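**User:**
My hope is that you can spare some time for a protein that puzzles me. This is the protein in question:
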Amino acid sequence: MKVGVCVARKLPNNHIKARRFAAGPSLRCFVVVSRYATTKKQLRYGPLCGALNGMSMDDHDIIKSLELELVNVATRKNKDRLGELLSDDFEEFGSSGKVYSKRDILNILPSSKSVIYELNDFRFINLSGDCILAKYKANTSGIGSYRTSIWVKNVNGWKMLHHQSTVRQSAI
């Protein structure tokens, strides 16, 4: 998936009107049309996701877009945006075996080395009306991993509550 920047403008009630831009025939670009991106800064750092031609996003599309946003270099350097995406009770079990809290992530990520992630094979399980488990594969620097995240919805939108990364074995 290619990532770029879309042009959008803010409307009343924190809704965003999306405009597509030309980026080649194989790339469809659009932004969130909802309350999730409420500032120009969030739009600039946000993922390419959302509604196209008036179609609304379902929760799985929103979660996928938020996962993609979290691996975006600009988002990872933006402590404020990271704070908005992670629940106060956030916990991560890293592939290294370390356990990280929200505070750990906010202290580590903005100053960490930039890494390019490739995410694919997304699957979702609805755990309840406001809780979704996201499962996908990630590749970075030739290392593959299985990833799971638990997302919960509150009045401020979707927040990541838990994340786990497990290194994949090479194919036999």
Summary: Residues 84-172 form a domain with the Nuclear Transport Factor 2; Chain: A, fold (CATH 3.10.450.50). Residues 127 and 133 are 7 Å apart (CA to CA). Confidence is low (pLDDT under 50) at residues 1-56. Helices lie at 40-45, 59-70, 73-76, 79-85, 102-108.
